[in-house]
Amino acid sequence: MYIVMLGKPGSGKGTVGKMLSDLLGIIHVSSGELFRNYIKRAGKIGEEIESYVASGKLVPDDLAIKLVEKRLLEDDCKKGVILDGFPRTVLQAEELDRFLISQKEKINVAVELELSDENIIDRILKRKECSNSKCREVYNLDFKRPKVADICDVCGSKLITRQDDNIETVKQRLKTYHEVSANLIGYYKEQDLLYTVKPNLNSPDTSKIIVEEVNEYLKREHL
Ligand code: AP5
Ligand code: MG
Q1: Is residue 119, in this structure, part of any structural domain at all?
Q2: CATH assignment of the domain containing 192
Q3: CA-CA distances (angstroms) from residue 127 to 10, 87, 137?
Q4: Number of structural domains, the chain?
């Protein structure tokens, strides 16, 4: 099964994607995390990626596609994948469709998390994440505080703020979303693969409720 997570930066793709991955027993692959790992390792590719990520621009399609497809060929992706942050352009979506056909696979559903820009900025500026690349648990100083300040509840590593989580870069990421990535909504709607969920901002259990809704949808559609 292949599930694509769509939505603005900070809409909860990572949070919901990881919960869906636990529930369905298939791996969660975030293109953003993949790229941040290249940046951490240093080297030419990492340097090139960093120049885009740090300014909130998209990594060029050819490089993004090459690195994500390489990741999708790894053994842990054989059972299916929750894809978070990829595709982000219509060209990436078309390439992904071609790649999946070559693997005798297809996308089962594209889940869109719909949230206003104001909510997004507030959420992102209050985000912290685990520095351990094997854990990467995501926190929020309002919604999901760590039990001990700046320490991960899951693995005990230090929490960090992402280099692209500052107001200027968030504004650029939102601009990029509206100008480029929002076109994916129409792309998947046309193929009848789009499932839109609107997080209920007044409920502390929003992410859990969304995961249950998506699971019910998958069962209803016999996916
Ligand atoms: P990426 O890492 O994908 O960043 P993004 O799309 O900007 O999304 P985020 O990871 O910021 O947010 P999210 O939707 O995962 O939300 P989260 O669950 O953390 O990409 C980073 C960069 O890499 C891009 O800008 C680009 O440069 C490059 N890139 C990546 N993919 C690319 C591609 N395909 N092509 C080209 N370039 C690419 O939640 C956000 C916050 O909200 C957290 O604090 C969380 O705790 C909180 N939260 C979550 N759910 C709730 C809830 N229900 N209620 C309250 N708070 C909540
Ligand atoms: Mg994320």
Answers
A1: yes
A2: 3.40.50.300
A3: 9, 23, 11
A4: 1
3-class secondary-structure state, position 146: coil
The ligand whose atoms approach the alpha carbon of 10 most closely is 1
pTM: 0.94
Give domain status of residue 65, yes or no: yes
Nearest residue (by CA) to ligand 1, atom 17, is: 12
Q: Give the pLDDT of the chain (223 residues) as one tens digit per residue.
A: 999 999 999 999 999 999 999 999 999 999 999 999 999 998 999 999 999 999 999 999 999 999 999 999 999 999 999 999 999 999 999 999 999 999 999 999 999 999 999 889 989 999 999 999 889 999 999 888 999 999 999 999 999 999 999 999 999 999 999 999 999 999 999 999 999 999 877 677 888 999 999 999 998 886 6
Q: Is residue 97 part of a domain?
A: yes
Compute, in angstroms, the gap from residue 173 CA to the centroid of ligand 1: 10
Q: CB-based contacts of 128: which residues, under 8 Å, 6+ apart?
A: 138, 139, 140, 141, 146, 150, 159, 160, 161
Residue 107 lies in a domain: yes
Cβ of residue 181 lying under 6 Å from some atom of ligand 1: no
Q: Which domain holds residue 195?
A: 2-212
Return the ligand 1 atom nearest residue 53 CA. 27
